C-alpha cells in the first residue's frame, strides 16, 4: 500500500505566510538623508544584502515614499537640510504606527538620543558605523516586525474563534427552540395521519408536511453541528463506499453545465469522521465551486493517501506528522488572489453579492476538518481555479500480533502476520 509524500504545497488555515504564494518580497528600508552620496552608498550596501532601499532627501519626499512603498523600517538622519529628523519621526509614527524608525547622525548627544526615543524612534545609530552593526540592527528590527505581525494574526484568529463560538451558541439556541416547534408539528401530523388514511388527497398533503418537518429536522442538525454542540459519533468511513453515492446527488444538484468527476486511489485508508458532516462539507465545497464557474466548468473530486513528514512545511501550520487521507475538490473557476485566499476561512467573510452568501460555508468545512483532527488547505490563483484539500487522519489501525515491518521512508506497510489480537 503506497502513500504519497508530495502534494502541491497549499495554504493551511493557520499559516502566517501562505506557502507557494509567489516570490518572496524583499525587505523594504526607507533611507532619509540629505547627504546624497551617503544615502546612495548606504542603499548600495543594503541592496547587496538583499534589501530593497528607497531614498528620500527631505521630509516631504520621505512622506510620499512612505505612503507609496510602505517600508517596514526607516533610517532617518537627525539633521536634514530642510526639516528636522526627530519631527519627521513623529510624523512617520502618526502616519504609520507600525513603522520602525532608526535615527542616524554624526552629532551624537544624550539629549538628542532621548528626544529621538521620545518621538518614537526604536534605536539610534552614530556615524560612522560598521556595516555589521547596521545589518544586525536591521535584522533585529525585522524580527520585531515579524513578531508583531504574528501577534496581530494570533489576536485576529482569537477574535475569529470567539465570533464562531458566539455564533455557535446562538445557533444552538435557535436549534433548541426550533426542535420544540418541530416536535409539536410532528406529533400533530402523526395524529392526523392516523385519522385520514381513507382520504388519499389529505394523506398526500400530510406526507408533504411530514417531509417538510424532516427537512426542518435536518436543518436543526446542521445548526447544532455548526454550534459544536452535537457533533455525533465518528465512525470508520470507506470513501470508496460513500463518495460515489454523493457524486450522484451532486450531479443532480450542480446541473449540466458542470462536468463532475471522481478519482479515488485504489488502496485508500479508512478515515474516522462524522459521515453527515463530511457529506455536508463536500456539498458546501461543490456549491462554492459551482458559484465560481458561472459559465460552467470542470469539478473534480480526488482522494489519496498522504504522509506528512516532520520536515513538511505544513507541520508549521498545525498539521501533525503522520498518515492522512487527502480529499481534494478542484475546480476550473476564477480562482482567488492571495488577499482573498488568506481571508477565506474567516467567519462571515464572503466575496459574493449581498444575499448570495453568508460567509459560513468554508468556516463550517474548516470546523469539521479540525474536529476530525485534520486541517484544510487552499491552493488557488486568479484565472487558474481553486483546489481545496481536506487532510483527514487515517483511522486507527487494529493491533496486530506477529512481526510488523513498517518502511516509513516509502510509506509502505508490510504485515507478515495478519491475525487481529482480541
Provide tags for this entry:
422 residues; Rossmann fold; Heat Shock Protein 90; 6-stranded mixed β-sheet; 5-stranded parallel β-sheet; 15 strands; elongated; disordered C terminus
Give an account of the 3D structure.
The protein has 422 residues and is an alpha/beta fold. The protein folds into three domains: 27-129, Response regulator (Rossmann fold, 3-Layer(aba) Sandwich), CATH 3.40.50.2300; 155-226; 235-415, Histidine kinase-like ATPase, C-terminal domain (Heat Shock Protein 90, 2-Layer Sandwich). The chain is 44% helix and 20% strand. It is built from ten helices and 15 strands. Strands 1-12-13-11-10-8 form a six-stranded mixed beta sheet. Strands 3-2-4-5-6 form a five-stranded parallel beta sheet, with helices on both faces. α2 runs parallel beside α3 and α8 (275-291) packs antiparallel against α10. The chain is elongated and about 105 Å long.
Largest β-sheet summary: 6 strands, mixed
Question: What is the total domain count?
Answer: 3
* CATH topology descriptor of the largest domain: Heat Shock Protein 90
Structural class per helix/strand content? alpha/beta
Element layout with pairings:
Layout: E1 11-12, E2 27-32, H1 36-48, E3 51-56, H2 59-69, E4 73-77, H3 85-95, E5 100-105, H4 110-119, E6 123-126, H5 131-195, H6 200-226, E7 235-237, H7 239-254, E8 258-264, E9 271-273, H8 275-291, E10 297-308, E11 322-331, H9 338-343, H10 361-371, E12 375-380, E13 386-393, E14 404-407, E15 412-415
Parallel strand pairs: 2-3, 2-4, 4-5, 5-6, 8-10
Antiparallel strand pairs: 1-12, 7-9, 10-11, 11-13, 12-13, 14-15
Amino acid at each position: 500500500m503506497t502513500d504519497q509524500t508530495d502534494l502541491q504545497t497549499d495554504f493551511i488555515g493557520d499559516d502566517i505566510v501562505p506557502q507557494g504564494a509567489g516570490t518572496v518580497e524583499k525587505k523594504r528600508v526607507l533611507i532619509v538623508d540629505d547627504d546624497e552620496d551617503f544615502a546612495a552608498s548606504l542603499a548600495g550596501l543594503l541592496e547587496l544584502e538583499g534589501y530593497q532601499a528607497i531614498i528620500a532627501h527631505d521630509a516631504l519626499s520621505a512622506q510620499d515614499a512612505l505612503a507609496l512603498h510602505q517600508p517596514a523600517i526607516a533610517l532617518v538622519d537627525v539633521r536634514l537640510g530642510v526639516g528636522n529628523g526627530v519631527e519627521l519621526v513623529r510624523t512617520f509614527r502618526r502616519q504609520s504606527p507600525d513603522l520602525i524608525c532608526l535615527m542616524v547622525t554624526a552629532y551624537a548627544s544624550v539629549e538628542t538620543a532621548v528626544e529621538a526615543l521620545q518621538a518614537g524612534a526604536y534605536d539610534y545609530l552614530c556615524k560612522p558605523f560598521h556595516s555589521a552593526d547596521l545589518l544586525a540592527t536591521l535584522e533585529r528590527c525585522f524580527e520585531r516586525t515579524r513578531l508583531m505581525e504574528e501577534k496581530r494574526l494570533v489576536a485576529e484568529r482569537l477574535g475569529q474563534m470567539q465570533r464562531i463560538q458566539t455564533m455557535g451558541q446562538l445557533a444552538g439556541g435557535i436549534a433548541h427552540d426550533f426542535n420544540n416547534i418541530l416536535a409539536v408539528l410532528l406529533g400533530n401530523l402523526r395524529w392526523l395521519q392516523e385519522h385520514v388514511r381513507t382520504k388519499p388527497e389529505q394523506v398526500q398533503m400530510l406526507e408533504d408536511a411530514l417531509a417538510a418537518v424532516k427537512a426542518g429536522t435536518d436543518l436543526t442538525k446542521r445548526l447544532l453541528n455548526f454550534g459544536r454542540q452535537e457533533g455525533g459519533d465518528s465512525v470508520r468511513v470507506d470513501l470508496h463506499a460513500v463518495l460515489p453515492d454523493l457524486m450522484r446527488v451532486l450531479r443532480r444538484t450542480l446541473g449540466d453545465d458542470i462536468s463532475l468527476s471522481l478519482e479515488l486511489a485504489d488502496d485508500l485508508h479508512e478515515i474516522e469522521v462524522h459521515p453527515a458532516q463530511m457529506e455536508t462539507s463536500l456539498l458546501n465545497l461543490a456549491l462554492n465551486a459551482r458559484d465560481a464557474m458561472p459559465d460552467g466548468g470542470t469539478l473534480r473530486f480526488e482522494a489519496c493517501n498522504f504522509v506528512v513528514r516532520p520536515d513538511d512545511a505544513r507541520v508549521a501550520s498545525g498539521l501533525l506528522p503522520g498518515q492522512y487521507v487527502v480529499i481534494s475538490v478542484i475546480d476550473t473557476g476564477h480562482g482567488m488572489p492571495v488577499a482573498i485566499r488568506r481571508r477565506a476561512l474567516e467567519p462571515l467573510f464572503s466575496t459574493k453579492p449581498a444575499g448570495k452568501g453568508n460567509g459560513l460555508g468554508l468556516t463550517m468545512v474548516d470546523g469539521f476538518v479540525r474536529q476530525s483532527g485534520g486541517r484544510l488547505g487552499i491552493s488557488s490563483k486568479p484565472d487558474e481555479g481553486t483546489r481545496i484539500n481536506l487532510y483527514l487522519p487515517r483511522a486507527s489501525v487494529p493491533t496486530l500480533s506477529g512481526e510488523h515491518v513498517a518502511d516509513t521512508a516509502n510509506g509502505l506497510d508490510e504485515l507478515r502476520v495478519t491475525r487481529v489480537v482480541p
